[in-house]
Amino acid sequence: MKTKIDVTGALEAAIGSEHGITQAELANASAKLKGLKIDYAWMKLADDKKLIADCLEEAARVRKQFKNLVVLGIGGSALGVRCLHQALVPPYAKDTGLNLYVCDNIDPDHFGALVRSLDWKETFVNVISKSGKTTETAAQLYIVREAMIKALGATKWKEHVIVTTDPVAGPMRALVKEENLKSFAVPPAVGGRFSVLSSVGLLPAACMGIDIKELLDGAHSVASACKENDLEKNPALKNGAIHYIMDAVKHKPISVLMPYSDSLALFSDWYAQLWAESLGKSGIGPTPVKALGVTDQHSQMQLYMEGPGDKIITIVGTEKFKTKLPIPENVGKDFDYICGKDLGDVLHAEQKATVGALREAKRPVVQVTLPEISAFTLGELIMFYQIQTAVTGHLYGIDPFNQPGVELGKKLTREILSKG
Prior knowledge:
Layout: E1 4-6, H1 12-15, H2 23-32, H3 49-65, E2 68-72, H4 79-88, E3 99-103, H5 108-117, E4 123-129, H6 135-152, E5 161-165, H7 171-179, E6 182-185, H8 199-207, H9 212-225, H10 235-248, E7 254-259, H11 265-279, E8 287-290, H12 301-306, E9 311-318, H13 343-360, E10 365-370, H14 375-396, H15 404-419
Parallel strand pairs: 2-3, 2-4, 4-5, 5-6, 7-8, 7-9, 9-10
Antiparallel strand pairs: 1-10
């Protein structure tokens, strides 16, 4: 495991016992974890060689034949894809081979404009719905299907679509059989928000030229390192315990995730769904908040430093950036302290200063440091937070893999539309 986790800024030794966690509190959490077996279906996805080969084969065809990739999906069927793309496809690159459009909302103005603007002869569509029952995705699909039939014909459109859904059940699987469409399966034991390392995320990632073998190798390294039920040997277990204690014991129910890299900005969106949908149940659960360094030093940090002491803040950074961007030496005397520095040095200084300021203000802070942003380290980061979320659910005494509140909203949506 290459990613480093530093939790010392959340402990008593660094910020005192009022806000920092004591060894006794950690021991109590450890006792709650007794008997927990850290062994989840999504931890084994990196071992599925056939899945990797199938994704790479299909992606090679898509990259050769098409210019646009449209992903129809929402929530766990979209956030992971967007996160992978932003983190691992070079910004402003013009040679990725495909233009990616992730349609994770159904605003008719925006979605309608996309449907009208695309050349469907050059467009491939990946429809993603774990259950196959997602109303929003179904609505998008039938609109797109109509547009594709008009542009391509009643049979040809099928060559432009692949469906990722449940292997045997659900309306999307029925549509696959009825229309004889290509498809990938989401393993039944892998929930939507835990599915980015399955075909849900791997196929679009491979289409975008991301090294999915490296991504899964990174995930595998964390799965191997975080199997033991021992707080001192399992960093995902310890960080989950710290976040649980901060909420349940220290009355700090807000968890802020603040990457110091634009490439990781959408990782915060993925994390927010994972944390909120998995742990917010039965009147309990922490609230995730996404932030971005250094942008939100100038918009949110005042609250974190001097507002209510109800937060634990995680700073995610990278030891090195891919780009060297030196600041010229002919700067004004008021800015001589940046003279000759690299822009990455400035960002690292800002990050270090934020951590130091939070610790001085007795605000709990955890540091997550990647050696670099790569497919391997992003795989590590994703697997780390999935394991952390699952074990934290055990501490809360809830099932982190269901979402009854979301299901009620889906049910009421169907009822409202049926009456209309």
